[in-house]
Every structure is written in structure tokens, then in C-alpha cells.
Design a protein that fits this description.
Layout: E1 2-10, E2 14-18, H1 21-27, E3 34-39, E4 42-47, E5 49-51, E6 54-59, H2 61-67, E7 74-81, H3 92-100, H4 102-107, H5 130-134
Antiparallel strand pairs: 1-2, 1-7, 2-6, 3-4, 3-7, 5-6
Length: 163
């Protein structure tokens, strides 16, 4: 999907550009699709984000330099739906450091929501809280004036007449 847009500056250095809602709809992969972006003859992977009710694609300093762009530039952008799996390449020096440290090796395999397939999944049910495990309802933490809860007894001066 090709469209004209303007590189916008947000804050001191953050840049990106708006993607028309029609383009996001036509990509047909939800409100935050993974895409391959082409601007200024430079191509990079990214994800459409929703910021302030607008669909935006970030443009890092590295990609901005490679494309020869700056904030305020009018550009022709192209977004193509990226359906390839995103894979993380671990740098050799980091892999060597992890391999040399037994504690680091073990921690990389301890994702609390790791599935049998070896990937982390946030779709599992949450762990019950201590009161839920004990079978008791969670006590109220906020009291209405003049009322007490299991956690906070009423103040001794509540309900007394002034001396």
C-alpha cells in the first residue's frame, strides 16, 4: 500500500509518520500489523502503532539516516504486510557470556508462562492471589468515612463529639 505522508517529530528526537486508517484496514491484519516499510528507497521491518488515536509507524535515527530523511519531509511510503516470523538473532558475544554463566543459562529457560513449544505465552490464566488460594475474599483496602474494613480499624475520633 503506497501513500503520501510527512515525517513528524515528537519530543526531541523521536520521529515517525502517520498511516491512514484506510491503509491499516486494507492490510487486513488488525490495528497493529507487522509491516515492511519502504521510505526514501530504504526498507525496514516495523509495526504499526496506535498513538493518540492515530496510526503511526516509527522511524528510528538509523532508518532516518539510511533513507536520507528528516522531520518535516514529505515522503512516499509503502507498507507491505509482514507475515514472516520475527526471529531474534543473539549476538555471538552475548551467547558466549550466557553460555559461560550457569545462572544466566537457567534464567533464559524460566519464563513463567513458557509453553511446551518453548515460547512464552501470555494467554495462560493468571496465578491466584494469596487470599484466593486461601479461599477468603480479598479485604477492602479503601474505607468509606466512618466505616471500617478488615485492614484498617476506624479512627478513635470518628463519631465522637468534640470536647
Amino acid at each position: 500500500m503506497r501513500f503520501a505522508t510527512t515525517i513528524e517529530l515528537a519530543g526531541k528526537t523521536a520521529t515517525g509518520f502517520e498511516v491512514p486508517a484506510q491503509v491499516v484496514d486494507e492490510l487486513g491484519s488488525g490495528k497493529r500489523p507487522a509491516v515492511t516499510v519502504t521510505v526514501g528507497g530504504h526498507r525496514y521491518p516495523s509495526t504499526v502503532a496506535v498513538m493518540g488515536g492515530r496510526f503511526m509507524v516509527p522511524l528510528s535515527a538509523e532508518n532516518r539516516t539510511a533513507a536520507g530523511l528528516a522531520a518535516g519531509d514529505e515522503v512516499e511510503a509503502e507498507l507491505v504486510l509482514d507475515t514472516a516470523p520475527r526471529e531474534l538473532v543473539v549476538p555471538d558475544d552475548l551467547a558466549a557470556a550466557i553460555a559461560a554463566d550457569a545462572a544466566a543459562q537457567g534464567s533464559s529457560n524460566r519464563c513463567p508462562t513458557r509453553t511446551g513449544a518453548g515460547t512464552c505465552s501470555r494467554s495462560r490464566a493468571r496465578r491466584p492471589t494469596r487470599p484466593e488460594r486461601a479461599g477468603s475474599p480479598r479485604p477492602s483496602r479503601i474505607c468509606a468515612p466512618g466505616r471500617s474494613s478488615a485492614r484498617a480499624p476506624p479512627h478513635p475520633a470518628v463519631g465522637r463529639a468534640a470536647p
